[in-house]
Design brief:
Elements: E1 2-9, E2 18-20, H1 38-50, H2 58-61, E3 72-79, E4 82-89, E5 95-100, E6 103-107, H3 109-118
Antiparallel strand pairs: 1-2, 1-3, 3-4, 4-5, 5-6
């Protein structure tokens, strides 16, 4: 799996959509001064892959902006089967979806199962 793009909306300091696009093969470097959201970006990636869309645990709650709102994370991934867009929203109207070529292929618990399979069947998180 290769991550190709990331979008955060209502995630900590990013109350408006923030994107990282153009992620290529090989090593990619994310370089910004302190307090520009690098850790937020990686926490959001981890949440998308390892926190169920219905979760309200402290790690997911920590993604909420101070003004409130429902954290949303979208990641475009490339696999040997093509490109997919994986989306999760927590708290208000929680949702998880997977799209391929703009076609919905999984949602809710089926999307969680798709993510687990993408990660090798164990969505227990990094060790």
């Amino acid at each position: 799996m290769k991550i190709r793009a990331i979008t955060l909306n209502n995630v900590r300091r990013f109350t408006d959509p923030a994107q990282v696009v153009g992620i290529g093969d090989g090593i990619n470097v994310l370089s910004e001064p302190n307090e520009h959201g690098k850790s937020t970006l990686f926490d959001a990636i981890q949440a998308l892959f390892f926190k169920p869309y219905g979760s309200r645990d402290k790690d997911v709650a920590a993604l909420r902006p101070h003004a409130g709102g429902a954290p949303e994370v979208t990641i475009e991934v490339e696999t040997d089967k093509g490109r997919f867009v994986v989306f999760k929203r927590w708290f208000q109207k929680p949702l998880a979806t997977v799209h391929r070529n703009s076609t919905l292929i999984a949602q809710a618990d089926e999307a969680e199962a798709w993510i687990a399979q993408l990660l090798g069947g164990d969505a227990g998180g990094p060790s």
